[in-house]
Amino acid sequence: MPNLMHEDVLVEAVAQQASAVFDGEAVVLQLEQGMYFGLNEVGTFIWEAIQTRHYSLKELCTEVARVYDVDPADCQDDVQAFVDTLLEKELIRVIHAQPV
């Protein structure tokens, strides 16, 4: 698993998925495997964020901390674990930021 804490490592949703939000929680279908996953409120927040742009793990932690009023350091392990699961299930992929 790549070290996602480097700021030049970003994640994005793969094209082979479809998702919808029902009552504040996302359902994500991995099209190649035909498997679906239900996400809780925070997972849905992260999932919706990465649908709009590429994020580093640090940026995701900052956003989760801002919205849910938690310390970014406290949420880092949880966000890392969630992102690792999304990678494992092939719902997202790692990309590298282009140098400026």
Give me the strand/helix succession.
Answer: EEEEHHHE
Task: Kindly name the structural category.
Answer: alpha+beta
Q: What is the CATH fold-level name? A: Arc Repressor Mutant, subunit A
CATH-level-2 architecture? Orthogonal Bundle
- Structurally, the number of domains stands at 1
The global form is globular
- Low-pLDDT stretches are none
**Spatial separation of the terminal alpha carbons:** 26 Å
The fraction of residues in strands falls at 25-35%
Number of E-state strands: 5
- Gyration radius, in Å: 13 Å
Number of helices: 3
Q: Characterize the largest beta sheet: strand count, sense, and whether it forms a barrel.
A: 3 strands, antiparallel
Placed side by side, the strands forming the largest sheet appear as 2-3-4
Overall average residue pLDDT:
88
What's the CATH first level?
Mainly Alpha
